[in-house]
């Protein structure tokens, strides 16, 4: 079973328990109950590299689930992506986050020059 939660984290594991209290209000809101995964891993992707970080038994609240589905066992992810160590994937993830923050900062500056967007929150607080 593969589950993507709010924030974009991906968890993979064997489905053991699912609550049946979920709400279905067609067509706007569908909610699955809480889910328990056994032998769960968090799959972290950065570009064409990935790593499975062991999580063990994992309880995921239904309100945090954005996508849930079965994995096709015939598809081998190692053919398309390169498996790397946890240390390497965390380093790559930090680099990717830093570059995205820098890009967002440049974009905000360009918008500010053109009179679009909002000022930085820290600029409002800092009155020195």
Automatic annotation (TrEMBL):
<keyword id="KW-0687">Ribonucleoprotein</keyword>
<dbReference type="GO" id="GO:1990904">
    <property type="term" value="C:ribonucleoprotein complex"/>
</dbReference>
<keyword id="KW-0694">RNA-binding</keyword>
<protein>
    <submittedName>
        <fullName>SM protein</fullName>
    </submittedName>
</protein>
<dbReference type="InterPro" id="IPR044642">
    <property type="entry name" value="PTHR15588"/>
</dbReference>
<dbReference type="GO" id="GO:0000932">
    <property type="term" value="C:P-body"/>
</dbReference>
<dbReference type="GO" id="GO:0003729">
    <property type="term" value="F:mRNA binding"/>
</dbReference>
<dbReference type="GO" id="GO:0000290">
    <property type="term" value="P:deadenylation-dependent decapping of nuclear-transcribed mRNA"/>
</dbReference>
<dbReference type="InterPro" id="IPR010920">
    <property type="entry name" value="LSM_dom_sf"/>
</dbReference>
<dbReference type="GO" id="GO:1990726">
    <property type="term" value="C:Lsm1-7-Pat1 complex"/>
</dbReference>
């Amino acid at each position: 079973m593969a589950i993507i939660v709010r924030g974009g984290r991906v968890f993979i594991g064997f489905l053991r328990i699912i609550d049946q209290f979920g709400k279905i209000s067609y067509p706007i809101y569908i909610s699955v109950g809480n889910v328990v995964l056994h032998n769960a891993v968090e799959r972290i992707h950065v570009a064409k590299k990935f790593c499975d970080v062991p999580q063990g038994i994992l309880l995921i609240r239904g309100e945090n689930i954005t996508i849930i589905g079965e994995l096709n066992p015939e598809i081998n992810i190692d053919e398309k992506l390169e498996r790397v160590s946890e240390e390497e994937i965390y380093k790559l993830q930090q680099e990717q986050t830093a570059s995205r923050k820098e890009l967002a900062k440049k974009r905000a500056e360009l918008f500010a020059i053109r009179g679009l967007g909002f000022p930085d929150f820290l600029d409002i607080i800092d009155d020195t």
